[in-house]
Each structure stands twice: as C-alpha cells, then as structure tokens.
Amino acid sequence: MATQGEQQQQLRSLSGETLTWNGDVIAAAKAATGKEGTYNECLIALLQWILGSTNTNLNGLYAEFRNRTGANYPFVGADGTQLNGAPPFSIFSRNTNATFVNDEGLIEEVGADVLRVQYNPVTLEQLGWLIEGQRADLITYNAANTDWSKVRCTVTENYAPDLFGGNTAQKIVEDTSSSTSHYYQSKSFAHTSGQKYCYWGVFEADDRSKVWIDFSDTIFGSASTCYFDLITGAVTSQFSGIDAAGVILMGNNRYLCWATDTATSSGTAGAVFGLAVTDGVSGYTGNGTAGVIFYGAQAEIGTFPSSLIVTGATSVIRDADELKIPLSSVAGWQDGVSFSARYKGISAPGIGSSPQYLATIDDGTTSNVIAVYRGADNYIYLNVVDGGVTQATVQGPQVIGSHTVDVEITVIEDDISMSVSVDDGAAVTYGPDTSGTIPTGLTDLVIGNRSDMARAWFGVVSSYQIKALP
C-alpha cells in the first residue's frame, strides 16, 4: 500500500493522468482506505485520506485540493463499462420506455428516465450507455401470431425461449405448396413517398436456414428483396432496389437481419419475412414441417435498425435519450481555457443524412460548440464553433458501420487537433487546425448527442473524460 506521502506526490495525477476512469478511483480508494462503495463515496474517501481532511463535501474537497496543490481539478470522467447506472453529476431523461441488452444477454424493457447500460449479447461484456434518438416501431403487435398474415405457412407458438427470457418464440412453418413463396406478413402501416424505411427481424435457423425481407413493390418498386443466411450470419443477396442491409449477431445463434429501402409512392403495406431454400429465390416446394424460429420484427423510419420497441395495438414511439453533465459540476472548469477530452463509443450500424454526435460541449445552442461526431459521409470530425462561426473542422478516419471509436481531442487556442483509434487499433493524429478560437459561455457536456437532441449517436458511449491543460 502506498504511503500518504507517496500518494501526495500523485496529487496532480488525480486531475486525470493516473486515476482516469471510475474503476481506477474505486480501486485506489479500496487500496488506500479499505473503502468500498459508489464512485462518489470512493472519491470522497480517497481525497479525504490523501488530504488528511474530514470534509465530507466533494466540492469542498476539490477546493482543498486546489488550495493544497495549486492545481485545478477540472476533471470529469466516467467509464460506462464499470457503472451500472448514470455517471457522476449527470442529468438524464427520456420520456418513454425503452429496451436494451442486459447482463444475461436478454432484452429488457425499462421505464422512462432510466439510463440503459448495454451489454454484448454474445460475450455479455458491459459496453456502456446506450444513447439513441427518437424512433417509432410502425408494426403493431410486433411478435403476435394472431395479428400477422400467414401466406402458405403456419406458426407454432411457444416453440423456443424468446429474447426476453420467456418461452414465446415462434416457428414459421412452410406448408406443402409447390414452386411458390412461403412468408409471414405484418399488419399494413402507412408509408410516405421519399421516406427511407428499415425493416428488421430476429431469426434462428431450424429446419430451414435462409430468410428474406421484402418491401412492397407498389410502394418501393421492384427488386426490393434481400436474402440472409442464418448459418453464416451474412447478407447473401441484396437486390438492386435495396439501399442497405446487414446482420447483427444476437447470441445463441440468433441473428437480427435488417434492410432499408426508399419509398417511391405513398400507401399502406405490411413488412414481409419469408423462407427460402436457395439464395435469391423465394419460390420452392415446402414439406409441411420445416421452417425457422422467429423472435419478432420492427419497421422504423430510418436507414439502420435501433433498439427493439415493444408494440401492441398501436405504433409506439421511443423518445430520445438525453444525458448531460453540467460543467458547473466540474470543479475547476474554466471557461475558454485549453483542455483535452477523450470519448469512447461504439457507432451505429448505419447513418442517414444527419451526423451522429459522440459528445458535445456547448452552451445549449449550436452557436458555441465543441463537438466530436460521425458525419453523413461516415468520417469522424472534430468541430469547433464560436459565436456561430466555425473555428476549426478537423477530419479523421472514415468509419462505416458499427465499430469501436476512441477519440482524444486537444483544444488549445490556434492549435486544435484530435487522435482517433478504431477497434482498439493504433491511434492516428489529425490536425492541428492553427486558426481556431475557443468558444466561451459553454455550459454542458452532452453525451451521445448535442443540446437540441437532433444529432443522436444511436450507439453506445463507453467512457468520457475532460481535463484542463497547463
């Protein structure tokens, strides 16, 4: 165990060099004092021990730290892979229920204003905070046999364990019709010409191992079908009318198969999910017993899938997640002073016409902003705006699809740069931009969006840190 003197030599390191994330603080507090508890409890205990203080107020301890060392403590950081809830000092809201993958690899639904901590459904690794924008599931009864049309197929209910831990997964069973298609179709819902739609379903191979998703010819035009293999977990045929498609492994041999298309006419139609034996061919002769396991489906306006939205008799909206840390909570934060920040997250499987913001420091408007985002061109950007005028735009690597992105930015007057690591690879530095002014009047760190909630990350934010520079 380090002596108090040795710990005091590390006081400046507490501003971010050594105790970078929550787990470091918790471990250090236990090693030094035997204290176990929440991040804030451990941080208070550690600072009390180092400073020889009996102060129980965290901001008071920060003040003692500054007085004792002459160093500010402009540090806020949290590791979403070590927290089971909201990060310190944060304000979170969401007006509706939402779902996420929990620590058992199951989908769990939580109520309004509950921050979701996402896990990997395969490895059960904790990934971080799931931050999404507003979406709606347009399919009513998104996994209900009695409300879907069965075309040359039947459905066996309660066939297998479902995504929520129950036993309601269905088997879509082909009939014996010859040389024709066998499919399951949702109730019809409205489509608007020019709008992009994403259909997706979760399947598992059983007697059959190929499925397809189809968009209505009358609304989307011809060649709007996409085929998937449930053994290899791959898109095998993407017809020319399909804009994009992909597969996400959901654990236990289950695959989320998704495709997007753009409506060319307005009208109503259902989402179609069919069986196949040959890639790219919907028609075949069924044997009356074979099929695939079906766990549910979703249709949403957008160019990629988001988390499951549970529906009943009507379409359901999931509101946007809003996670902010007021800079007033960051002891030592100085407006307009040079700083560095580090943000790590997992990007969405796709992108639309709007950028996706990993993190933003702003004043509640878009006029004074320091933002890290993925642009509509899939490149990572650092953007600095002061008084409505862009001061610096630093372009990083192109990140297409879902990947781990680790970004560290350095914001110094006339010296603005960033380094980016993708999928834990070597970090590459971009910039500097040597003509930028640091905006003032900044009030919030916004995680996974910006203050107007119009640029959601639609992915996981794993960790963040802000640190003043000398």
How many β-strand stretches? 33
Whole-number count of domains: 3
Radius of gyration: 25 Å
- Class derived from helix and strand content: mainly beta
Distance between the termini: 30 Å
Low-confidence stretches: 1-20
CATH topology group of the largest domain: Jelly Rolls
Q: Any guess at the CATH architecture of the largest domain?
A: Sandwich
Percent range of helical residues: under 10%
Strand content: 35-45%
Average pLDDT, rounded to a whole number, is: 90
Any overview of this molecule?
- The protein has helices at 4-8, 22-33, 39-51, 58-69, 217-220, and strands at 75-79, 91-93, 98-101, 107-110, 117-119, 126-131, 135-137, 149-151, 153-160, 169-174, 183-185, 189-191, 196-205, 210-214, 225-229, 234-238, 244-251, 254-262, 267-269, 272-276, 291-301, 316-318, 322-326, 339-346, 356-362, 369-374, 379-386, 389-398, 404-412, 415-422, 428-433, 444-447, 459-468.
- The protein contains five helices and 33 strands.
- The protein folds into three domains: 1-71, no CATH class; 74-132 and 322-470, Jelly Rolls (Sandwich), CATH 2.60.120.200; 136-317, Galactose-binding domain-like (Jelly Rolls, Sandwich), CATH 2.60.120.
- Helix 2 packs across helix 3 and helix 3 (39-51) packs parallel to helix 4.
- The chain is 10% helix and 42% strand.
- The chain is elongated and about 85 Å long.
- The relative contact order is 0.15.
- Strands 1, 5, 6, 24, 29, 30, 31 and 33 form an eight-stranded antiparallel beta sheet that branches. Strands 2-23-32-25-26-27-28 form a seven-stranded antiparallel beta sheet, with no helix packed on it. A six-stranded antiparallel beta sheet has the order 8-11-20-14-15-16, with no helix packed on it.
- With 470 residues, the protein is mainly beta.
